[in-house]
Amino acid sequence: MAWPSHAQHYLKRACIQSNQTDIQLSWDLTQDPCGQFVEIEIFARPNNFSPFSSIGTITNFNQSNFTHSGAAAITSTWSYQLIYRYLCNGIEYYGDTLYVDQIQPVPSTFDSVSYDPVSGGIFLGWSQNMASDLYGYYLWENQNGNNFKFDSVYNQLAYLDQRFDPNAGQLFYALTAFDSCANQSVISARHASPFLSGTSSNCGSMVNINWTPYMGHNTTYYEIYLRLNGGDYFIDAQLDPSETSYQFQLASGDQAEVYVRAGLGNGFTSRSNPVQFQALDSFAVSANYLRSVSWVAPNTFEIDAYFDPGVDFDSLYLLRLNEPKPLILWSGLTSDAPYPYTYTTKSDTLIYSYVQMLTDRCGRHYYSDTANNVVLSGRETNVVDEYTLNWNPAIYLDGGISSYSLYLGDDIPTYSTWNIHQNDLNDSTTTTLVTDEELNIRCFQIVTEENDPNQYGPGVRVYSNPRCFIQAPSIYFPNAIVVHGINNEFRPIGLSIDKENSSIEIYAKNGQRVFKGNLSSYWNGLHEDGSGYLTDSYLYIADIQFLNGERQHYSGLLTVIY
Which domains does the chain have, with CATH numbers? Predict the structure, then answer.
């Protein structure tokens, strides 16, 4: 019977397990030369000075591994041998002696660590480790001098790391090789591609870049690659390996992307992360327009505007002419919409002029046209209940003035509920005559209608300040009420009375106060439970505030009749 050709190489490996107690044996399956396999017997010895002893017998021809339990806890110098036995000829076949594998693979290191422009990750490449039973490689990241294993690879010599953003800082890596018994090589030195950063002047015309050197290999040169306005990259400069900074100039409006390539002493190269820069040109403002300056409350205007909040603008200011300090309404650092903006003034009967100013990051200023509030003024004529009103036009409106509307009201606090008195006054009109209004207080307001739309959007309505004319004050107090009759309310009546700020109190003859309130309420001669007071005379005391600012005190007797 011929000896199997591979009989001398039955055993493949003997590895100490991760528990550091057992030893795992494995071998190649051989052929049964006569179809009468009997057994495989495993022999071991703790060292070269001891004889081999049987540690197990395997009768399954297809079994290819065996655990020598507890062996590693005794010693790590074991050696092993297999004997195959067959019935066909009674011959025993011996394999070679195999020792426990504790040999580390030779060290591995990266050929290059480089930014990958396609994926935006970091590409790691290395050469094949020459260990005879190499199994794979461990990849490590280094943080603050400590190595952390983050992956393992098999049958490959490259890796793409996309876990981190290479634009956030320099990333450090290390490499080890491991064999079939998990023996590791010494961990390599740290490797990192150059990390590029930079700054530019306010307008982006002068660019300064600097970078960290390649870590892990000697560098022989640096090349500065530049791309302008989306074109192809070109080498702008080649620098000595001692250089770690560079400066270049951009023309107005240029967009630039730059990266650094390091030439390494082993013949490979490494690319840094890219950095972009923009040199601002004078900007064509698409919208810089004060839309309206409109009265909303006493001495208060609401200002609305359009502006271009593009990246080229740093901030927005509102300027009121003849005031030294501008008001900043918006900054590129915030996304808050500044308009409509409420602006408080000392008086709403003076004309104020406003300008919007946009500022780009180069410090250049862009001004809107001037806008102003509409001031309504007027006077009484020699005719009773006749008034002449005039106003200044809102000539800044982009769509032009379509018409004016005159609103009329008789109560200062409720301007928003006024009614239109004259509609569609001619767009060139800035004066009108109002007659025969029998009201205690006559308040007018001009509303300017803009042609709709303008070039920026819908037309607007601009409200002037109100102009009020007050009737001469007068007041009348009834001297009796009939609780269950028609005249069943005691309430003073008159002209130009500020009802909310006036008060009245009513007392019985015994000094009991039966009512207290302002002139928006009244007394009906009844208790809260609906029962009536005595038919009698009662004393009223009134403190009356008139709309012209006068205040008067009144008192008298009121008779209550049932």
Answer: 7-99 (2.60.40.10), 110-179 (2.60.40), 196-278 (2.60.40.10), 288-372 (2.60.40), 376-470 (2.60.40.10), 474-561 (2.60.40.1220)
